[in-house]
């Protein structure tokens, strides 16, 4: 009977030991992606890709909107003055005169462990072994107090592959399972787990479900100014401001939380406050006088005389908004480097002035696109200092300006602040 | 061996081609092992991926390239054990129907079974049985070692191994064995 038993067992062992199976070819892509980007292992392998696609869409749409605006910066807007003087028919004369009069009136009204070392003798007693199974604890850690914890065993040290470890046999009773574990048992009392980067990050994610950030930054504010083609004003030019003029200075504060969705990817959401005030000087071309004379074919030709009036416009932005976006961790060594992008929906706090005077703003809502690079230090503490160069650009504005142009603000800023990691 | 050394060196430099080459070398064997330790193909794929990710991330710890295969295998086994702990299920353990010792017919029918069918039988075993069976019968772990790995007593390990074998024989019986020796 024993011989039959052995025969059966041998056959079973031989068959199973030799069993191989071709994996799904797509698995390599998944493995490679995880190895190269360090993403967390997860069953749903589509999620990181979806986040990357989302991030890509946000970035490209922001760039697209930015690059497809026709007008230059606020400091260099030029409005053509080579406007053709129309030849007007007699029936239009009165209308034109009326318009010219309105323009004149308007212009006059304003101013401006590892667990390895040596061999452990003896066997592990049942009552000295304690299993602590959990998702985040993934290595077997042998402590000198004879506790065995289950944790990540993939942190295999070089000595893990010893001859004895390779040739595992049933007779290999001493020193029990630990012999075959990838590692050594320390002789001192300071045995610590040596986990892989992967399990560490998983534990980190488990321990720190979210981070809170607060940053405040001075912002150099720039404008993209587009003349309004539908009003009766001709903007001759807009005053230049130096690129780093103090006139451009604004302030921006952010408070929010970020939540990890993959090993390197966090989504964030929070509040943002943005304030700045800028005086925009511009020169308006006005019709000061018109001379009417008959044309050779009986029509009436109106020849206007132009005058140039310098005006100023107080552009005030005081917004409170929400921001949503994603962060991608690029590197974590001494400093934690993160790239992030997002969208901000602002509502103006200084809006409710339906009959705003000319030369003042009457904004209501903005949508900003935001791109930044965040550097945090130190990486291992809960409270971390943050330095964050940021670019933001308003690609949608529901802003009713009492000025002959539209303004789309954008800015370059340097956030300073802190994050607190729970 | 120098070829393996070269491959490992390139892998350590994170050369994608070398990584793929290494992967291709061991993929079938690792998947075979993962299939033995898990209940379904989906689970096996999870363990499989985790194994290779750990292999690539821990390559720096491997000093002797001659042990590469056993090292990878050990990572796969450890990953499977971790997976078992993470996804512990409370299997219904079938009642014992008496001891059925293998007969010639068992061995014969075993030899006629395809690999897929055999793996299917292993997959059907309760998780604990399957773990003990694989660790002891295939990997050669001793019962104390298995007890430490799975957090069970040595006696339980022995008992589960016997039950696993018994369950396998019962299942084999359904594949056409009509005659077997039975001892109560």
Q: What can you tell me about this protein's structure?
A:
The complex is a heterodimer of chains A (about 425) and B (about 180). By secondary structure, chain A is an alpha+beta fold. Chain A folds into 2 domains: about 65-110 and about 210-420, Porin, CATH 2.40.160; about 115-195, no CATH class. Chain A has helices at about 1-15, 25-35, 45-65, 90-110, 165, 175-180, 195-205; strands spanning about 85-90, 140, 150, 210-225, 235-240, 250-260, 265-295, 300-330, 335-350, 365-375, 385-400, 405-420. Mean pLDDT of chain A is about 65; it is low at about 40-45 and about 70-200. With about 180 residues, chain B is mainly α. Chain B is built from 9 helices and 2 strands, in the order ααααβαααααβ. Chain B has helices at about 1-10, 15-35, 40-60, 70-85, 105-110, 115-125, 125-140, 145-150, 155-175, and strands at about 100, 180-184. Chain B has a two-stranded antiparallel ribbon. Chain B is globular. The termini of chain B are far apart. Residues about 175-184 of chain B have low confidence and may be disordered. The chains are: A alpha+beta (about 425), B mainly alpha (about 180). Chains A and B meet through α1, α2 and α6 of A and α2, α3, α4, α5 and α6 of B.
């Amino acid at each position: 009977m024993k011989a039959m038993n052995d025969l059966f067992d041998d056959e079973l062992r031989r068959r199973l030991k030799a069993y191989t199976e071709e994996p799904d070819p797509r698995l390599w892509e998944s493995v490679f992606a995880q190895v190269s980007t360090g993403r967390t292992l997860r069953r749903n392998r589509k999620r990181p890709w979806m986040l990357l696609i989302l991030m890509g869409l946000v970035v490209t749409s922001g760039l697209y909107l930015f690059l497809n605006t026709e007008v230059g910066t606020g400091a260099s807007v030029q409005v053509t003055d080579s406007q053709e003087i129309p030849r007007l028919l007699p029936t239009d004369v009165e209308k034109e005169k009326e318009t010219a009069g309105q323009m004149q009136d308007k212009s006059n009204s304003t101013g401006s462990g590892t667990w390895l070392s040596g061999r452990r003798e003896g066997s592990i007693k049942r009552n000295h072994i304690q299993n602590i199974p959990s998702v985040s604890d993934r290595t077997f850690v042998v402590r000198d107090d004879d506790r065995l914890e289950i944790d990540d065993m993939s942190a295999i040290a070089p000595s893990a592959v010893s001859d004895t470890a390779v040739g595992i046999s049933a007779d290999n009773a001493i020193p029990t399972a630990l012999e075959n574990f990838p590692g050594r048992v320390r002789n001192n009392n300071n045995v610590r787990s040596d986990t892989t980067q992967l399990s560490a990050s998983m534990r980190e994610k488990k321990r720190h479900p979210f981070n809170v950030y607060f940053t405040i930054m001075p912002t150099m504010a720039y404008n993209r100014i587009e003349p309004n083609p539908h009003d009766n004003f001709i903007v001759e030019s807009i005053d230049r401001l130096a690129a780093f003029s103090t006139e451009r200075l604004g302030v921006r504060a952010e408070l929010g939380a970020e939540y990890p969705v993959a090993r390197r990817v966090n989504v964030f959401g929070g509040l943002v406050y943005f304030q700045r005030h800028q005086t925009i000087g511009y020169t308006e071309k006005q019709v000061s006088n018109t001379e009417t004379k008959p044309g050779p074919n009986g029509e009436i030709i109106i020849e206007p005389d132009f005058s140039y009036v310098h005006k100023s416009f107080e552009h005030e932005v005081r917004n409170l908004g929400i921001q949503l976006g994603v962060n991608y961790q690029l590197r974590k060594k001494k400093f934690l480097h993160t790239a992030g992008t997002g969208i901000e929906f602002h509502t103006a706090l200084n809006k409710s002035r339906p009959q705003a005077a000319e030369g003042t703003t009457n904004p209501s809502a903005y949508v900003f696109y935001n791109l930044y690079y965040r550097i945090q230090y130190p990486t291992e503490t809960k409270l971390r200092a943050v330095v964050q160069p940021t670019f933001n650009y308003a690609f949608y504005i529901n802003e009713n300006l009492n000025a002959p142009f539209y303004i789309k603000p954008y800015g370059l800023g340097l956030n300073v602040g802190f994050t607190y990691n729970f | 061996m120098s070829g393996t050394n070269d491959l490992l060196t390139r892998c350590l430099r994170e050369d994608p081609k070398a990584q793929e080459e290494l992967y291709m070398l061991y993929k079938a064997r690792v998947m075979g092992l993962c299939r033995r330790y898990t209940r379904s193909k989906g689970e096996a794929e999870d363990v499989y991926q985790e194994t290779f990710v750990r292999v690539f991330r821990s390559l720096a710890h491997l000093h002797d390239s001659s042990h590469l295969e056993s090292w990878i295998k050990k990572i796969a086994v450890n990953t499977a054990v971790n997976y078992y702990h993470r996804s512990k299920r409370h299997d219904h353990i079938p009642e014992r129907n008496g001891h059925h010792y293998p007969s010639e017919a068992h061995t014969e029918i075993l030899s006629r079974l395809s690999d897929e069918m055999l793996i299917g039988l292993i997959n059907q075993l309760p998780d604990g049985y399957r773990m003990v069976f694989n660790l002891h019968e295939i990997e050669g772990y001793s019962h104390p070692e298995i007890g430490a790995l799975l957090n069970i007593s040595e006696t339980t390990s022995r008992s589960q191994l016997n039950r696993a074998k018994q369950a396998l024989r019962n299942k084999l019986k359904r594949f056409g064995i009509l005659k077997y020796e039975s001892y109560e």
